[in-house]
Amino acid sequence: MKTLFVSALFVLASTLSLSAIDLDEIIAKANAARGGEKAIKSINTLVQEGTMSMAQGFELNFTQTTKRPDKVRMDMSFQGSAIVQAFDGTTAWGINPMAGGKPEKAGSDEVKEMADRADIDGELIDWKSKGYALELVGSEDIDGSTAYKIKATKSEESSFIYIDAVTWLLAKIERKMSMMGQEADVEMVFSNYQEVNGVQMPMLVEMRNDGNTMMSMTYSSIKANVDVPDGRFAFPGDDGSKK
């Protein structure tokens, strides 16, 4: 009986502790833990290199290049073939060797997804001006650690952001994504943080569905403020070049 009473007190104390903090405090602590808004906004370009491991057993080498404002490009190599996904702030396009290997412009769904990927700062920086509505909805356990759960809604679409209650770093994002032509609930779990240009960045990102890891991205190198021309993101021919 005494053990049950002590356990009940512990649960109550934990609940009260979690409820004692509000959304603004969590956002402030999360942004500070990353390195602070000034340091985050001082990064104008990111070049991230690494390996993408698939559940099916194969791997791809990749380089993701991001530049303010709203530009991103992912270059992947698989069995000697080059795969490209890019967004220049307006046009999303790609090169798929399985579909002829020619540059093709993407549709509106891909434009939205690439625009989200091009945001260096993340949802918690300037979230109001970006059109997000944020709501603290509670806390959950993520791989043995407690995290605050924040609902982020924009244009009637919602995702959930989880902030670790100890480190205050981003632990996970849940959102619906298109996979193999079907919509699925996907978890992106972030870990192994390292400092880059004064900002904490995850060196491992796992994508999970129904608790199973479908893909993991392991970063071997992240460089900030590398000189990258705008033409690197443009649809071939739109920038006057043929690359």
Give a brief outline of the structure:
The protein has helices at residues 2-19, 23-34, 37-41, 108-117, and strands spanning 45-54, 59-67, 71-78, 81-87, 92-95, 103-105, 133-142, 145-154, 157-164, 170-179, 182-196, 199-209, 212-224.
Give the beta-strand count.
Answer: 13
Order of helices and strands: HHHEEEEEEHEEEEEEE
Rg (C-alpha, Å): 20 Å
Helix share bin:
10-25%
Distance between the termini: 73 Å
Into how many domains do the coordinates divide? 1
Strand content: over 45%
Structural class: alpha+beta
Note the total helix count. 4
**Order of strands, widest sheet:** 6-5-4-3-2-1-13-12-11-10-9-8-7
The biggest beta sheet reads: 13 strands, antiparallel
Broad shape: globular
Low-confidence parts = 1-17
Give the integer mean of the pLDDT values. 87
What does this structure look like?
The chain has 4 helices and 13 strands. The protein is globular, with a radius of gyration of 20 Å. Strands 6-5-4-3-2-1-13-12-11-10-9-8-7 form a 13-stranded antiparallel beta sheet. It has one domain (2-60, 108-227). Helix content is 19%, strand content 49%.
Write the layout of secondary structure elements.
Elements: H1 2-19, H2 23-34, H3 37-41, E1 45-54, E2 59-67, E3 71-78, E4 81-87, E5 92-95, E6 103-105, H4 108-117, E7 133-142, E8 145-154, E9 157-164, E10 170-179, E11 182-196, E12 199-209, E13 212-224
Antiparallel strand pairs: 1-2, 1-13, 2-3, 3-4, 4-5, 5-6, 7-8, 8-9, 9-10, 10-11, 11-12, 12-13
